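S.,

Sequence below, as promised.
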Amino acid sequence: MALKLSEGQRRAIDIRNKNVLVSAAAGSGKTFVLTQRVLSRIIEDRWDIDSFLIVTFTRDAAAEMKGRIVKSIEEKLKEVTGNDDIDNELKRHLEKQLILISRANISTIDAFCSSVVRQNFHKTELDLGYKNPTDTEAAALKKQAVDDALEELLSEGDEKFNSFYNMFIGKTNDKDVVDMILNLYTFADSLPYPEKWFDECLGNYENAENFYDSIWGKQYILGIEENIRAARKYADEAMYYFKYCASDEIPGVIKKVYETIENFEDAYRTGGIDEIAKLEVKYTINLKSVKDEYALMHTDVIKRYLNFVKEELNTALKNSVESKELINILFKESKHNIRSLIKATRTFMKKYAELKLEKQMAEFNDISHFCLNILRDEEGIPTETAREYQRKFKEIIIDEYQDSNYLQEEILTAVSGIYEGKNNIFMVGDVKQAIYRFRQTTPELFIKKYAAYSEKNDSEELILLSENYRSRKVVLDACNLIFKQIMDERLGNVKYTEDIALNPKAEFPEPEEGMNISDCTELIIADTANVKEKLAESEIDPKRAEAKLVAKRIYEMLCIDPLYIYDKDENRYRAVEKRDIVILVNRRTNAGVFCDELNSIGISCIFEKTNPLFRATEVKNIISLLRLIDNPIQDIDIVNILHSPIYGMSFDDITEIRNNGPDGNIYTAINMWAEKDDVSAFTIKKFISDLEYYRDFAINNSLPDLISEIYERSNYFNCVGVMENGSFRQANLRLFKEKAVEFAAKGTVDLHSFVEYIEADLSDDIDENNKTGSAASLCENEDAVRIMTVHKSKGLEFPVVFAVQLQNQLSRKFKSNDYIFDRELGIGLKYIDTENRIKYKTKPYSIITEKYEEEEKSEALRLLYVALTRAKEKLIMTGTANSRGSKTGKEAMLNELAEDRNTILPYACRNMADSPLFWILAALKRSSLDTEGAIKQKWVCLENVDSLEELKAEQAVNAISRLNKVDSAEADGKYAEMIKESLNYKYPYKEETLMPSKISITEIKRKMNSDNGEAENIYSEYKITGVPKFMEKNRKISSAQLGTIYHTIMEYMDFENMKDEKDADVLIESLIDRGIITVEEGKAVSRKKIAEFISSDLFERIKNADKVFRETPFVMSMKASRLKEYENADSDLVVHGIIDLFFKEGDKLIVVDYKTDRVNKSAAELADKYRIQLELYSEALEKNTGKKVEECIIYSIDKGESINVKF
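The prediction came back faster than expected:
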């Protein structure tokens, strides 16, 4: 069947013998186009897959690309096999590609550079066995190198350098100088030729006699010229509205404005800024004399444009009258500082390179530079090695080209055919999605080629893909409405015309009558207008109010008026689930308030973050225990571990223990307390016993084995699994163990070294973004609202998107620095009067800052574009704002421009934005452009933000029902009686204070079995041998570990597609590849047992069920008196647990519990053992769903048998 392609897609696939830039909008199917182009080359031109160089931005994208190409080849091969009309040569050629795919060059740029270096390592100073330093190792080497560099330079006695150093050091240390050097190094290292750039930076200062002769001086003059040009443009816009007036009807102010502009233009032509400095801007905007009807209708717009004229001319005047003498003095003084900074950075770079070379370490940028030196000589000419690659690669395909940089550009063009007159570079990207400037990417590359390739010629071509195959029209209409008004070449770096506007092509079937599907995009604002001044900020927090509105809207679409979305996989409409919803934040630190509000009403959510692994609470507890195993005299760690879920002591109890001990460490105090005979002493004894056991265990076992033993003996791994976001916490614990395995593999296996490694990673010397990251991937089956940053969401799509906190300020971090860098304009530094400690902004610094600020705003606008275009069906934007306006008058300006004739808002207006919400509100002010009613606004006063208490009540567990029986106390106004009553009060439930507030299903089962006379061992017995376990050849996995492994496999089982033992093997290998289970754990699993389950009647029932729920956590209340231990209690216990699986058959619920017990018992005996547990599962489900549980089934993996449990 022929593929249905757009004109642009067909052109991108078929074009030959040209360098091509494909500008592919969000959802336009660029990966599909790339795949089809490769397939076309393979089939039509008979190219081999390894003759391409395909570069992607991430490893995941590379893997996806390779997978799609393989699938396309296999489908084509299936199509031609058995077709007598197609020659066998094509069939053989396609079969060959499936063999060659393993050596295909489909990778990230880093991976390609590594490949070049490893194949040519003899041309570098590296050994073949070099390694990439960890962030911790790199930070340590940098610190050593910068300390050595500064020590060397300061010892030279250079007055100019000493002056520079003293100028920028802080009050207590030289951190500011160090940061300046390290940041300049990072910036320069992203360029192809750092040394050459340093020389250019020095030359820009050294070769200019004064500021006005420098590149910044020329930029400064051009800025004044642009102000005058913009003033005339705005005057012409104002004049447009007098088009029906005779010349004598045009008000005098218009003539005065044009006269003033002409004065500025004449002054600039004749005497430059010196002449402009003599002028003045003096006119009053008065339109009272206007009589023309059309002009009268637009007086607000006219006034606004005339104000823009005044602002532009005043800016030109202000810049012209600045003191030339001061500007030149600061410029001259800056030369010495620039020279010193570059000298320090070069010295650091040399020492840092030596340290890395000594240890045979190389960072990714080092590898890129080694690669560039292999491919280009000192003159930049491709080497013979580069020419070999040129002959090898017939086409260079670069994905996400907007995220490339000049270093990568030099490398990839070196291996292309352009030096041989061949046009074979195929670039795909979207400058509207260039959001990685903080990673030193340079969208300017894309922008320049976009402009150059727009003019078609024989060697270059621009292809536009604006069709969107992802989103509903209501989403795209909203995006187009906003970005047509605010994005152009100057702000956003591309003109948002009809050619590149999002064109809806996604197909959504007609829903059934009555289904609630998305019919608009929403803007929900928490309105701060009527907040009473007397109310403290803590009482009405705008950000929390916004989070409540988001939580409530999610609750509504989940529970009250379900939103229906189209599920392509199921080919039907279904009610939206939590997993379909994402909340996009612009910073990681902004996620917490949304997590809090969602969790408070029982809506599970997970923040997909890469926060430091070693700061995750569940990991910090294990780190504390490891520190104590290494050295038990650690007060903070003892307190932390005793308070952790492992031992569960309150801070009050711990404080009491410490206060009753002698002066000194808490370790002595707890040993004394262990002699007592009460509940807390029992816990302390358990802790001391465990610690002694772990310390002995650590002597004869490996570090990873010690961590496994802690997880198993303490039951901590399972414990965190039932907490909120349990699977995420468990993933962090798995990752922590993996880090221990990696550490041990380096040959350093002792616990003390590992603890030091952790402490180094946690130190302030490591940037937060470079610390060891926590687990960020979620189980695909986990039904939870996702919260992630916009950067994290790039390349993804979601049925429902909340773009939140749009009122947050645009980034201004760079303004707090004393330095700023730019590839073209070089280095700008502030100047500090060390005697008076006054900082001056030098003109180079100010000019680079102005450029940087404009680029930051463009990136912020592109970030907004990425956020809004993630939505497939429903887009909801939220923020906080004051409907009455602010003191800045920006809102009044937006009202004045509401009737402007131009689609794009004036740059002077768009540039005033301090947040993305300003741009959105500016676009929505012009209701005439929203002909489709694409966006509906809802403003909710902060004082009227609905409390979530009612929603919480619907979701909450009745764990404190007894409080409803307490009568309200009636005050009689007699203070004496009140005091007496308070002092004589006795707590009526004192006995129940010893009861746990929460209890697990496992503990209830143990207690009930114990009540029935059955004893159960809750702690395993351990036998310590003289041979460390890590030296045993046939390492055994415990039954508890094996049970966890089987449960994990069942959690990821694909009931739709798995058929036999082969599928079981594929699943297990997949889990190993994804790091969910280890190779050893995979070997311990019986494929036969899994296959028995797949072939069982139970599996078939689950497969055909209406809906399946896995690993479902629950909380419910239970009368404590059901346990013999609390038979006289009148209160409830909060019971928590996880149901392995339940499924729906019509209105019936069927509960399934997997058991891995190796038993000789009969089915009836096994049912008896777990009857209590299944009964509680059934009760919990019926309470929470209101539906009847029809059956409870135990599936014994050991027996391969389904056992019905009757109550």
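Residues 533-538, 764-771, 953-972, 1012-1035 have pLDDT under 50 and may be disordered.

Coffee later?
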